[in-house]
Amino acid sequence: MTIPGRSTARRKPPHVLANAPFRKLWTAMSVCSLGDWLNLLALTALAGNLTAGWGYQAQSMAIGGVFVAKMLPAVVLGPLAGVFADRFDRRLTMFFCDLLRFALVLSIPLVGNYQWIIVATFLVECVNLFWVPAKDATVPNLVPRERLEEANQLNLLVTYGTAPVAALLFAVLSLADDVLGRLVPFLAQRETYLALFVNALAYLISAVIIFSLKDIPRTVTPDGAGTPSVLRQIVEGWRFVGGDRLIRGLIIGMLGAFAGGGAVVGVAKLYVGELGGGDAAYGVVFGSVFVGMASGMFFGLRLLRELSRRRLFGLSIIVAGLLLVAIALVHNLVIVVLLTVLLGACAGIAWIIGYTMIGLEVDDNLRGRTFSFLQSLARVTLLLVVAVAPTLAGLFGRSEIVVGSDPVYTFDGSNLVLLVGGLLAAVVGIVALRQMDDRRGVSIVADLIAAVRGRGYAPETAEQAHGMFIAFEGGEGSGKTTQSRLLAIWLRDQGFDVVQTREPGSTKVGMRLRAILLDAVHQGLSARSEALMYAADRAEHVEKIILPALQRGSMVVCDRYVDSSLAYQGAGRELEPEDVVTINRWATGGLVPDLTVLIDVPPSVGLTRLGGAADRIESEPQEFHERVRREFRSLAAAEPDRYLVVDGTLPQNQVSMIIHDRVREILPDPVPRETEDVTGTMPAIRD
Ligand SMILES: Nc1ncnc2c1ncn2[C@@H]1O[C@H](COP(=O)(O)OP(=O)(O)OP(=O)(O)O)[C@@H](O)[C@H]1O
Ligand SMILES: Cc1cn([C@H]2C[C@H](O)[C@@H](COP(=O)(O)O)O2)c(=O)[nH]c1=O
């Protein structure tokens, strides 16, 4: 349900970085990410320097050792780190982790030998394992739910966006090391030392920021009597991840994406070489993954804002898998680069959705373990796939399809690895989609088309409904009640089963809400509670009356529906239109009428038609009712196919005729107007 073309000025919601606690955490995260990348560059370079005399093979293995030391802790310590994040004060966990990282990185140049690099790297990674889930689990506590996706976009941006900054900084620091080495002889020993000092400083800065961040909730689970043992908490975390359908789907999907990504990383250099590209081409392919990820995260999500997030998650992994298959089969470097951008976009979309959904759906006391479970498994998967992929490619060798004596198509080990990786990701995406789909039975294609057009999806329940839903809207005294009754009678005449209903007040609860909402004694009711009460009445109405009737195949004729809230609470009370849309979409499950009849009269006419004492809303000033009218008209103008606007100052029978003509167009098998003129209606019913 969209509300384009509205007349009310929209207040732009504040940017997520306007939220001071999140901004602080994000700054600490950015500084740490920069430090992490600097750490990787400095340590691999230092390992290479320190082992320069060991021979080429030993030197390569020494550099590889740094990577292994970085990956290994996840396997061993991952589960424990998650429990830590769920059990202890997250702020202090992050603070002490930062201090430890600072001390460890500082010790590397001071000790200055290869063995200590490996030990210190392993220890720093162990500490990281505690820092990251504590941070991930904290983010959803600092930002409102609706801003979590945006917050995760920014987090991912600094996690990867700091890599090129770190590379540049590393180059500058290496040069500076040479110059400063003349003043401080210690720095002259290795040109990576200065980078390591800056890296250590980054962790120290983060520690100071985190310490000042008092908004992080102090403890998650009270530690003491009654707190389950660490082992029990680990098992509880695993059980939760394995037992919850949604989380299982998310984790399977994200791991599938990692396996596919690992396959690319493992054989990319080989594959680009096969395509005739050199190091520069390899760099372009590598870079295009990141360009794609950034575009997917920012533009892809915006473009498909209206699609169910669960569906989009599964779909993006399936599409990523298929793109990988295409990359494996197409032997053209330019096309491969383009496909890689799209692949990155799908990965970016899936990653943001996965992270956001874990943040939203997992209880605070389990979130640390869930993030840490994901983090550990992702690293293990990446390690395994990166190790196995080149070996598999090497074992397969090369095959050629030869026509005559000319080879027309070559398929080698790197193609095979990409193909298998792609198929695996596609299958995993399908499994994830099945586990998580929140719109079973509703066509994905229809959903996608609606989303691309910027239209919210109709809910599952509405799709399953067979009846027809007609709503009447308009200002006070416009004639809605009169016309909806007449239409119900006419439809019954036509042989339809009709449920005629109204808002607010068509259910038992709704009747009580109506009394609160309209009784003039409740002056001063806040605009938000008013909007929520109308939405509550609507939720009850949709669930208890409208949907069951539609599912039976009945015609539902309803006097007022969601547009009344958009007009009265949105425009009349000047509430944020998006908020009114959101609560009503949630209340109704997105159920939209097949036709909305707007009976338009100037408030000066409508209000004078009403007899009796004015209720709480009728007694609002003229300008209020003018705003309401303008909003109704602009809603109708924005969706002319769904609306019929009738001039309510016309005589009643003329208004009825116009409505009948329009409704006849959408009725299944209507009685033709000429026949109706001859046969007439049943007076008994009309009376
Ligand atoms: N086309 C019309 N011309 C003149 N009077 C009309 C017309 N339609 C309805 N009325 C009269 O106006 C009064 C209000 O009509 P009705 O109750 O149908 O309006 P409504 O839009 O449902 O009002 P409310 O906003 O209070 O629900 C009634 O007395 C009705 O007979
Ligand atoms: C559904 C709905 C209604 N209102 C207002 C509009 C009217 O003043 C009353 C309903 O009275 P009626 O005589 O039954 O038309 O409630 C609103 O402000 N918001 C809504 O969503």
From TrEMBL:
Cellular location(s): Cell membrane
Gene label: tmk
Reactions listed under catalytic activity: dTMP + ATP = dTDP + ADP
Binding-site list for ATP: G474, G475, E476, G477, S478, G479, K480, T481
Topology of this chain in the membrane: Multi-pass membrane protein
Provenance organism: Streptosporangium longisporum
Family matches, as InterPro entries: MFS_dom, MFS_trans_sf, P-loop_NTPase, Thymidylate_kin-like_dom, Thymidylate_kin_CS, Thymidylate_kinase, TM_effector
UniProt-listed PROSITE patterns: MFS, THYMIDYLATE_KINASE
General function of this protein: Phosphorylation of dTMP to form dTDP in both de novo and salvage pathways of dTTP synthesis.
Protein name (database record): Thymidylate kinase
Keyword Kinase set for record: yes
Enzyme class: transferase
Transmembrane segments: 62-85, 154-173, 193-213, 246-268, 280-300, 312-329, 335-356, 377-396, 416-433
PANTHER family: MACROLIDE-EFFLUX PROTEIN (PTHR43266), MAJOR FACILITATOR SUPERFAMILY (MFS) PROFILE DOMAIN-CONTAINING PROTEIN (PTHR43266:SF2)
Keywords per UniProt: ATP-binding, Cell membrane, Kinase, Membrane, Nucleotide biosynthesis, Nucleotide-binding, Transferase, Transmembrane, Transmembrane helix, Transport
Its EC number(s): 2.7.4.9
Domain Major facilitator superfamily (MFS) profile stretches: 25-440
